[in-house]
């Protein structure tokens, strides 16, 4: 989580950058280097590839005493802790370039631009050969990977030769048949390249994991964990590779040793990122990771950062997006301790991010087990959460409010919840949440505000089964606000889900207090079927209000 994390009950995965043109593109990430330096390296890189095109793709040897003729950008493959990082950077940079070239080939092939198809094939061939040469020089290549390399190089050469043949004819029938053949070969090249890069990355990941498992140096282990964390940001496919190579097991070994307490937070942050995929969660379950998380969360001597990252892992593995629920069986055994620790963390959080992670974990937990809701009521959670909403140091974004109102919505199914919400002046807070507005046009923030409004309306509707809650809501002018949200698309951020929730809440209040709704509003928003009222409001122009 290199940037502000916004886990929700729907997903608490870290954001990752992605590209889309080829099988490798979802894995590639712009490297975090100085932009001018990156431009200079890429310019030099591409220029020398053009030199190779002139030389008809003949290999250029690397003189150990001089790097002026070197094709690869090898900005510092050296010894020590930096070897793995530099190997990964070079590998990812190279793979991104090849992926881009292959994507261009697909596009140009469809348009029949044969000259460009051939020149792109030559460039891709050069890039692949230089990547293989560079990687082999820096790291001993596993035998299985060598087979892929040989096959890939042969296919790249075949692709170069067959595209060259298309330059010397205007026969449409021949070109059409060649287009199909080239497309098939290009697909094979793309798949083979993807598999080879997966194997190369797995090889590098094994090196990092070995550093974590075998080193006693905190700095060396920390550097290896940082590299793993960086890789997790490149998408779920790479996270799957990391999980399969045993990273989760190695990281939990760190979290079970007191001498590495300073690395707990860093390790758990990486675990949370890896657990965005099922393989990561399965590995966590096999090593009793949930028990380790419970120990860290309930250990009063653990620093807040470590407990916050443990909460992030809990939020990740309890996300409703995961299809597998096998790991939740072991989670239930520790649920009381974990829920207790999380609500305490919400109460004592020193900043918004810590509160966000703890509340996101609680929000997800309340979705899959009603016992968690009962535990939270016993722990005075409603008071803690509503008080936190008044503290801008803890609840400072729509994302945090989303977690709070999600928990309240799930707690509101319990009959005993209504009296506590009334006691804590929770109806006033729900009405404030109904007015949540994004501070920018950022899509994720807009979506978070919509969820806050929707869940606030759902919570109000559920609580209004209690006559005292309904009466309080009407006295606080909940009805006019709900009507405004129904009739004005901009007030509800043009969200249909908010409209449905507000109509439901309005009808619940009208059922208990019919006199609170004016005749015109009753005729349009209460009397018709819900779907008819929805269609009426969703088609309203702003001038109607």
Automatic annotation (TrEMBL):
Residues 1-29 have a biased composition (Low complexity). One of its GO terms (molecular function) is cytoskeletal anchor activity. Gene3D superfamilies: Inscuteable LGN-binding domain (6.20.200.10), Leucine-rich Repeat Variant (1.25.10.10). Residues 1-30 are annotated as: Disordered. InterPro entries: ARM-like, ARM-type_fold, Armadillo, Insc_C, INSC_LBD, INSC_LBD_sf, Inscuteable. Residues 94-545 form the Protein inscuteable homologue C-terminal domain. Residues 31-76 form the Protein inscuteable homologue LGN-binding domain. One of its GO terms (biological process) is asymmetric cell division. This is INSC spindle orientation adaptor protein. It comes from Poecilia reticulata (Guppy).
